[in-house]
Amino acid sequence: MSETAASQNPADAKRLRVDIFSDIACPWCFIGKRRFESGLESSGLAQDVDVYWHAYQLDPTLPEHYDGSELDYLAKAKGMDPAQVEGMLQHVTAQAAEEGLNYDFGKLVVANSFTALRVLEHAKQQGLGGEMKEALLSAHFEKGLDTGSVDTLLQLAADVGLDAAALRTALEAGSYADEINADIAQARQIGVTGVPFFILDGKYGISGAQPAEVFANALTQVHAETVGAS
């Protein structure tokens, strides 16, 4: 699975493009990423698929910094019943564990994801989008790091091999905001109302963190159609 620039080369006609809209502050997006990866692996098409990550904000109203837990935020800011929130967080933690992910909502730092998504866009343009996406999701849901902090984001970027100084300069200049807003506008235009959302071959949509088998079957079917049409 790789993230590459779009190509018009006829030799690439048998490759399958997958566009994924997701947010680094969305717990189901990390689960969906793992399930998609499992489905891709079992389909045997891992070397024939190019993945393109797109930004989405599940909750753009999140503050840059919130002095409280995820449970506090959802209960107070969103008006949800605390017991319901607790049950919801336990459920998603259990689902994540089944995919080998160690969610820790007790340590999670509530933060707006816009700056992190700008960092991801920078990484994509440097050919490290997949690595940065993984690092951001893990930092937010497993490690309790503040993904709203520029210093934290720069360290994560450096850890995946990016030039932190160049990234800081880009962030200070306001770079990549237009790309994030364009992704969000595109999602709205095609009717995406929740993430993760997967688009296969620009035509087939899969909504949510579906079981790995769903992804495997869809990839196999769409790839066969793509190859047959080439």
From TrEMBL:
Record domain DSBA-like thioredoxin: where: 17-219
The UniProt record lists the keyword Nucleus: no
InterPro entries: DSBA-like_thioredoxin_dom, Thioredoxin-like_sf
One Pfam assignment: DSBA
Keyword terms of this UniProt record: Isomerase
Coiled-coil blocks: none
Gene Ontology MF annotations: isomerase activity
Protein name: DsbA family dithiol-disulfide isomerase
Organism: Glutamicibacter protophormiae (Brevibacterium protophormiae)
